[in-house]
Amino acid sequence: MDSLTQAALGAAVGGAVLGRRLGRKAVLLGALLGTLPDLDVVLDYGDAVANVTEHRGVSHSLFVLTGLASLLALLFRRFAPARNISLGRWWAFFVLCLVSHPLLDALTTYGTQLWWPLDTGPSAYPIVFIIDPLYTLALLGGLLAALVGPRVRRACAWGLALSCAYLLFATGAKLTVERHLAPALAARGLESAPRLVQPTPFNTLVWRATVIEGDDHYEALVGLFDGATEPTLERYRRGVEWQPLALSHPRGERLAWFAGPFLRYEVRAHQGQETLIATDLRLGFPGFHPFAFTLATREGGTWQPVLVSEQLASPYQANGDRRQALRRLASRLWGPEPPLCTSHFVTAEWIVEAPSHC
């Protein structure tokens, strides 16, 4: 999630655990701890693929953060002026403030390496977008009450309760959307196909489903208020003819580990050379995929891995106005009319199949 939300979550957790003993100091210290894991963004691994896939890595590991919390608890129990706080209470404070950060991140699409250094892929169960105003406002409301009122602990606890209730609503919304989507997938024989269902930007009322089928992938937008309207499935090319070349290089393998099958491959001119590019289809929105990476270039008929991978913006936008896209999405929140098709934002060269109303 964004830094403001993570700071608010850490502050609310800190106030709920030690607000009665430390007052507003617990809120401020919690806010600092809540943003601490994201300091890994200042690290430059010298390569765009490495920078993206190493983010939410070691600094988001439950093992690492629990160890750090234990060390901080020992130090504060020994040196903090507040002598009436037990070691167990300090430990709960630091663990909860730190660990709540990656656990919330794991509820977004990006993927969080909760179990680093174990050889497991990133964890992701997306029920909220990386910026969700309603979730953040629930936390900020409790914090505001804590900062101006006398009962810090109670106010922070209410903020946490409201934000958790919103996450429960988002979970129910996801399950509802998946049930609504199931008949449309079954009609195409896609029941067992890899798929990702995630909220569209800034809301939990309209969800985006991405389904992989061989050389192609499907996109669908499904709303909570769609009623009996069947989801519209739009089909796109993935360029899998370039996948073996991509996977023959370490960066391509790393991206496949990071994004799974949700990758699109293409060759296009970049800086005067034929360049193999992989795009993460999970992140962003069709037509607005910001995570595209150079993997290899063709020189003298031979493909060579790039020395340093670059991150590129997708040029394949039929309509590059993000504000217009958000306006159209906002009009779609309360029902299937007016219809919103993802292919509206994608150039025709990638579209395999789109319904006539699109």
What's a concise summary of this model?
This protein has 358 residues and is α+β, with helices and mostly antiparallel strands. Helix content is 43%, strand content 16%.
Helix content bin = 40-55%
Number of helices, where a helix is a run of at least 4 consecutive DSSP H or I residues: 10
Strand order of the largest sheet: 1-2-3-4-10
Number of strands: 10
Quaternary structure state of the chains depicted: single chain
In words, what does this structure look like?
- The protein has 358 residues and is an alpha+beta fold.
- It contains ten helices and ten strands.
- It has a five-stranded antiparallel sheet. Strands 5, 6, 7, 8 and 9 form a five-stranded antiparallel sheet that branches.
- Strand 1 and strand 2 form a beta hairpin.
- Helix 1 packs antiparallel against helix 7.
- It is globular, with a radius of gyration of 23 Å.
- It starts with a helix and ends in a 5-residue tail after the last strand.
- The mean pLDDT is 94.
